[in-house]
Amino acid sequence: MLPDVRHPPIAAATLRRLELASAPLAAACLAEMERTRPWFAELPADQRAGVALVTQTGVANFVSWLREPDRTTPLTAEAFRTAPRDLARRISLRQTVELVRIAADVFEEHLPPLAGDAAEQHELTEAVLRFGREIAFAAATVYAGAAESRGAWDARLEALVVDAVLRGDDDGALVSRAAALGWNPAAPVHCLVGSAPGSGSESPQLIVELRKLAARLHHDVLVGVQGRRLVVLLHPTGRVAPEGTGPVLTEIAARFGAGPVVAGAPSPDLAGAGASVAEALAGLAAAPGYPDAPRPVATRDLLPERALCGDPTARRRLAEDVLAPLHDAGGELLRTLAAYLEGGASLEGCARALYVHPNTVRYRLRRIAELVGLSPTEPRQAFVLRTALVADRTARVRESVSGTEPLTPLDNARPTGIDSTAPAEVLS
């Protein structure tokens, strides 16, 4: 830092010569900027005019500062207050520092001939260094304020996007706002919902940490903190590990607060993410019913708990997605599944109820596991299958009452004896 040493004032005649040379000095600065910085010459005319205005104001303020050195801060800040509001968004801080350096070099070249003697030359040279330093600090302050305003605006816009997804909006405003944040609205979206860590006052720092983590994992992220609830939307930016997004979701879920974290089904784009987030929120409400659930737990793994909590989407998925393959395969598998689960998961008891051989029951249970991907002999998967049976029956009862489908409860179907479609070895 230069020492704060008081020097003799510049002579009035020298100051007058500087005032008369202000316009040529500003023109020389702009000419040097255009000559040495190709990007400056390519700027639109309005932006070059903004830089010219800042330069001319800076040169005039330099002369005023030589008259009153104690007014350094007001005069240097005034140079940037005259600039157009969007100039800081168009020209980076690095480029601004380059332009300030060019202006300082031009001053050092053109000011010595205007001095009255060697002492004034030394004073003017040191004054250029001091004023250039203050101009650089003023520029940094302007850009810091612009960055803070931009960050606050981005945070509000991000909150609006997440809130729109939670409401299920799929209009053009959602897409345009997400695009303004640099988000690709056409990319597939994964979502995580859970509780925010801490008391909620740490949400700005949490968002920064999640953004850094997602960037390290090659994902873009949108974060919404609503009270104690944390919602994270993310999509890959290109380079994703061969094992997919599973490890990414697990690592991000570790930053959530205590309690369950639910991962929604992938959505093809941001506009269609509302349904996935709605299912994830329903899963979060039902997750306490599955205390041994992994973290995160997929919404499809919470279908029984969601159905018991009254989620109509879960009941429909149980009836359609879980039991649809069994309906397509014929009624024998459904009857066997119902008899097995409701008979205490006993092979012999199920075989007696259906008047078939126990090997036939084993064969049918294996077929159910192959078709549905859920084994009736595993406790958790058996619970899912039994809940699906109940959801299917209640759905059929409602449809029958409404007159859309005849009532054919599975329990009332007569057993048909030995399964003629089973392989011969299971009948022995």
Descriptive notes:
The protein is α+β, with helices and mostly antiparallel strands and 428 residues long. The chain has 3 domains: 12-149, Globin-like (Orthogonal Bundle); 184-310, 2-Layer Sandwich (Alpha-Beta Plaits), CATH 3.30.70; 315-427, Orthogonal Bundle (Arc Repressor Mutant, subunit A), CATH 1.10.10.2840. 61% of the residues lie in helices and 6% in strands. Strands 2-3-1-4-5 form a 5-stranded mixed β-sheet, sandwiched between helices. Strand 2 and strand 3 (229-236) form a beta hairpin. Helix 2 (22-36) crosses helix 4, helix 4 (45-67) crosses helix 8 and helix 16 (331-342) crosses helix 18. The protein starts with 11 loop residues before the first helix and ends in a 27-residue tail after the last helix. The model is unreliable at 1-7 and 406-428 (pLDDT under 50).
Looking at the overall shape, the CATH architecture of the largest domain is Orthogonal Bundle
- Strand element count: 5
Low-pLDDT residue spans: 1-7, 406-428
Supply the number of structural domains: 3
Structural Rg: 36 Å
Taking all residues together, what is the mean pLDDT?
Answer: 76
For the largest beta-sheet, the strand count, sense and barrel status come to:
5 strands, mixed
Strand content is: 5-15%
Number of helices in the DSSP assignment: 19
Overall geometry comes to rod-shaped
Widest sheet: strand ordering: 2-3-1-4-5
The CATH topology of the largest domain is Globin-like
